[in-house]
Amino acid sequence: MSLWFELAISGLITGGIYAVVAIGLNLQYGLMRILNISHGEFLMLGAYLTWLAHTVLQVNPLVFLPVVALVLFVAGVAIYRLCFYRIVSTAPAVEVIEARSLLVGFGLLYLVQNLAYLAWGADLRGYSFLTESVEIAGARFGANRLVVFAFAVGASLALLAVLRYTLIGKAVRAMMQSPTGAQLVGIDTKFLHPVVFGAGLALAGVAGALLSMVYEISPAMGEPYTVTALIVIVLGGLGSALGSLLGGFLLGLVEAFGMHFTSPSLKMLLSYSVLVAVLLARPKGLFSR
Amino acid sequence: MPEPVLSARGITVRFGGLLAVDSVVLDVHAGELLGIIGPNGAGKTTFFHTLSGVLAPTAGRVVVAGDDLTGRGPHAFAAHGVARTFQTPRVFKEMPALDNVRFGLEFAGRTRRHAHDAFDKAETILEFLGLADAAGVPAGSLTPARQRLLEIGMALGTRPRVLLLDEVAAGLTHAELDATAQLIRGVRDELGLAVVWIEHAVRVLMNYVERVVVLHQGAKIADGDPRAVAKDPAVVEAYLGAEVVV
Amino acid sequence: MTRRHALIALLVGGVALAALPWLLSDFLLALALSCVMYAGLAVSWSMFCGPTNYLSLATAAFFGLGAYVTAWAAGALPYGLAVLAGGLVAAGFAALVGAAVLHLRGAYFAVITFGLGELVRHAITYYEKAYEGTVGRIIAAAPESTTVYWMVLFVSLAAVATAMIVRTSRLGLALRGIGSDEERAQTLGVNARGAKVLAFALSAFFAGALGAAMAVRWTYIDPPTVFNPFIGFQTVLIAMVGGAQTLLGPIVSALVFSLLTEFLRLQFPYLFLVILGLLLIVLVLYLPGGIASLFVRRRWRRGNA
What we know:
Chain B is an alpha/beta fold.
């Protein structure tokens, strides 16, 4: 029983991170049809910024979280204006927006990842934070993992609440359902697009900051999370934030149990099989209407 | 009477709870010039979609010259001689006008022959439509009215038996309309096609077609001579509001 | 330029390129090999994705499959047959997968082709480990580097020739119609599914054959080496930068890329990729038709609507 519990919590912890990253990517896609394949690189930046703050300035990583969020939000707005705005406004068809933003995303991926290599080198970096063990119902977990879980879930739920209950959240959802309709009722899409894009990157940065508390970091750490986020989005439905939350947890659990009962090399096979199967069976995702 | 070239047998289309087309029965014969009218939302375009294979009907069968093509894709319908235009002209924007017409000739039109051989060349078709000067121009830069004409050309390229025209008259002046209608009649006369023409501009249609079918809320409520249909009380009530002087 | 003239030009170019092993040093020949390979990959990618505007990330899967065919067949099949088999296996896989997947478009299609590539990689990794008890394979009897060069050159030339023929054929017209308005093309008689599957498989054939041909250059291969997504991205990048709708664009682009890669990558590995990323962004934003779009003469500028 304790093994199942441990695996489940472990899965939920990883799943929480997946959810945060996926929601960010999903907002960008659902609203602007931008599939930002460099999303994970901003996760990596969040991780490095936190590491720097902790090792150089002795700042508590948790306290630094809002700073990371803010920095990456601003970066997101800038990147949207510089890179993606032109695509969204000049492309002749939705498919073209998707294809071109995918390519720009690749460009950003190469750019950001290799700038990180230039700045910090390829060696793994890390720091210790809250590594004491905590016991819950007979299973032991690092305190840092539990904190990460709490923050990941908290951030996701906060975002869902914003989307559902605030005016700006409703505006975003309206835009996702019908861009023209939203404009007709006076929603300022030109203002909201960069804001949502920035929010997406901020979420990625926060996920990265949280990860840095538990794992070692390297410039290449972002890519696997981008890929996983894609899988989560497909599972939960492109454009559905709730779907990403649930999908993230689902994938985390599947991975935790799958890795334990089969071999790790089967884990990726499983993940991709699920992705392909879902895309084929329900191209709009498991949770979409 | 010879076999109809296009036969809709009890076509019904449901989108979830919405009944878009309700058990419509229609026979179109070779050389007929038939109009379909009806208020907005009457199901005319949806009906067209089933007649051209773009949409499979929820119930009923579509038979083209004796072959049951229900459920088969648009390219099967095209190969059997059903050609269509769309409400908003769908041309291949980046290709020159000539290639747009040539397209049909290369595919659905490949194994079929026109009654009139001259229409086996894209250039002739363009000339007939008055578009010869635009042959090398990318279709996307033509005016909407000319794009509509080009669409007819593309349809003719498939050497059809039946031509389905979806609201070709929208936005045209009286003179332009007259010219277009004469063109369509000309096409029918030269090639012996059947033409089925959906129109919103009721008055226009009534003057140019030989038979009118009225759809209302997905069902057929009248079918016959334009004058008689115009006086049919059910039609008047549903749509025309007052007696139409034809 | 008529099709006949183009094919003759290709033949002449091919002969010239075939003479390179006698003219170049080993290092330069390796560079030429890389160039020719990427040209072949980019041209075969553009064969399908250019006119239809699909974004396929499956090149790595086809390439890797081809490479593994050579690895598995090592010794049992002569080099030439292994290359052919590699192409056929990749084409077969593409046809199977295509039938199931080609109704998707845009980002969905890109993601699923990427996913399939990774799926194949992990499937082979698992199979090799669980059933063959090995992680990678050694390719013992490798042909000489000149032979490899000629084989790769031959496959790439064949890819270019096929691309030329497809472009001017009915299939090419069908693909362009599908790229412009698929449903419209169908109402004019195009069997969209059949055309797409055929072109996709054709494009996969060359990627697989190139993978099979190149495999012998690595004496030891394992899934991460040959199913390297970078090969897929690089191919897409080269094709799109060059201009996927043209024939010459991807070829010239492959040449430039290979040179850039060789001369910069070793000196400044990270800086090189930073520049690459920047270049890609600028190009997609300001020159989406690729560099070739600067050169395409607009035949129809004269005359107006």
